[in-house]
Design a protein that fits this description.
membrane; UPF0056 membrane protein; 83% helix; Multi_antbiot-R_MarC; Growth Hormone, Chain: A; transmembrane; cell membrane; mainly alpha
């Protein structure tokens, strides 16, 4: 197992997916649902998100190559997208989706897309998988993805308790701290893309 690849992927996905923040939003989406409905929705959203992330991670690079897009261009554009996400995390208020008493399936939207497997996570999946040097690194990234989404699943299942423990102030502090980390990760992607393009010229 490649510990460095695992930790890099784990950190990146942890910042973007934000298991704690997702748990708080999940609780807001299903405030009056029974435990069984909450569990089914959380598991369904997690499985859909894992499938999307792994699909984009393994085949996204081939797809963009078919479109004539260089992977380094994706690194730069993806880094800019991640930086914009980080900027929003640090400077803007997060709007909680309005809860509805009507029973609706929120596992696909907004839980899976865009919360768990949004543009930032999909872009990151392509970047980390395309950047893996060998099979050991790819397996480590795969394990990091599974770890993050299992952690997020657990947090969603325990969302009622998470809300009581962390509260709104704690979530604000955590969100802004993670935003700074994500900004640094985004700049690193941009730097790597520019460096690779410059060396190829």
């Amino acid at each position: 197992m490649d510990i460095t690849a695992y930790l890099n992927a784990f950190t990146g996905f942890f910042v973007i997916v934000d298991p704690i923040g997702t748990a708080l939003i999940f609780n807001a989406l299903m405030p009056d649902a029974d435990n069984r409905s909450r569990a089914i929705t959380a598991i369904k959203a997690t499985l859909i998100s894992i499938a999307l992330i792994l699909l984009f991670g393994n085949y996204g690079e081939a797809f963009i190559n078919m479109l004539g897009i260089n992977i380094n261009a994706l690194r730069i554009s993806g880094g800019l997208l991640l930086f914009f996400t980080a900027f929003n995390l640090v400077t803007r208020e997060v709007s909680m989706p309005s809860s509805s008493k009507e029973k609706s399936d929120v596992s696909v939207f907004p839980l899976s897309i865009p919360l768990l497997a949004g543009p930032g996570a999909l872009t990151l999946s392509i970047l980390v998988f395309s950047g893996s040097s060998d099979q050991k690194a790819s397996i480590s990234i795969f394990l990091a993805v599974i770890s993050i989404y299992l952690l997020t699943l657990v947090m969603m299942l325990l969302s009622k308790y998470v809300k009581k423990v962390i509260g709104k102030t704690g979530d604000e502090i955590l969100r802004r701290f993670l935003g700074v980390i994500l900004a640094a990760l985004a700049i690193q992607f941009i730097y790597d893309g520019i460096t690779n393009i410059s060396s190829a010229v």
